[in-house]
Amino acid sequence: MALERTLSIIKPDAVAKNVIGEIYARFEKAGLKIVAAKMKHLSRKEAEGFYAVHKERPFFNALVEFMISGPVVISVLQGENAVLAHRELMGATNPKEAKPGTIRADFAESIDANAVHGSDATETAKVEIAYFFAETEVFPR
Ligand code: RTP
Ligand code: MG
């Protein structure tokens, strides 16, 4: 078992639905600790930079438009195997394919408005955490 950190984003659709607390409760019940958090309305530049790996994909523009459509809640979660544990709580990218009881099955509308983002590996988690948080903003310092 490895103590890891991962980046979580509660996307604009879930913030608008008023389910920040319900999503946070799922993280905490699963043993993931919130060690950094902020609410932010991303600029186009920030969203494009964050999703730069998807730049050439056909859904890139729609993804960026959606991510800047309202504020998001960005958090760092810490726990045993946090990257995978978080992705299991999230469920499949397309909510129609997400297992019952996952965040996307319960709160997401579509593959675009799919409630949450989670880092997909420990290396990407490090990059994504540094994209949004200074070292002094992740606790304990
Ligand atoms: P995320 O990065 O947001 O945690 O989601 P993910 O790993 O499950 O999915 P990824 O392949 O990284 O795609 C990033 C986001 O792009 C949107 N997407 N749309 N229309 C499509 O075919 C499509 N595919 C992906 C989704 O909102 C996905 O979360
Ligand atoms: Mg991804």
Tell me the total number of β-strands. Answer: 4
- Cα distance, first to last residue? 22 Å
Could you tell me the radius of gyration in angstroms?
14 Å
What does the oligomeric state look like here?
single chain
CATH topology: Alpha-Beta Plaits
Order of helices and strands: EHHEHHEHHEH
Structure overview:
With 141 residues, the chain is of the alpha+beta class. The chain has one domain (3-137): Nucleoside diphosphate kinase-like domain (Alpha-Beta Plaits, 2-Layer Sandwich). Helix content is 39%, strand content 20%. It is built from seven helices and four strands. The protein has helices at 12-16, 20-29, 44-50, 60-67, 82-90, 103-107, 122-132, and strands at 3-10, 33-40, 72-80, 116-118. It has a four-stranded antiparallel β-sheet. The chain is globular, with a radius of gyration of 14 Å. The structure holds ribavirin triphosphate and magnesium ion. Residues 54, 59, 63, 93, 111-112, 114, 117-118, 120 line the site of ribavirin triphosphate.
Architecture blueprint of SSEs:
Layout: E1 3-10, H1 12-16, H2 20-29, E2 33-40, H3 44-50, H4 60-67, E3 72-80, H5 82-90, H6 103-107, E4 116-118, H7 122-132
Antiparallel strand pairs: 1-3, 1-4, 2-3
Ribavirin triphosphate is lined by residues 54, 59, 63, 93, 111-112, 114, 117-118, 120.
Short précis:
The chain is α+β, with helices and mostly antiparallel strands and 141 residues long. The protein contains seven helices and four strands; from the N terminus they run E-H-H-E-H-H-E-H-H-E-H.
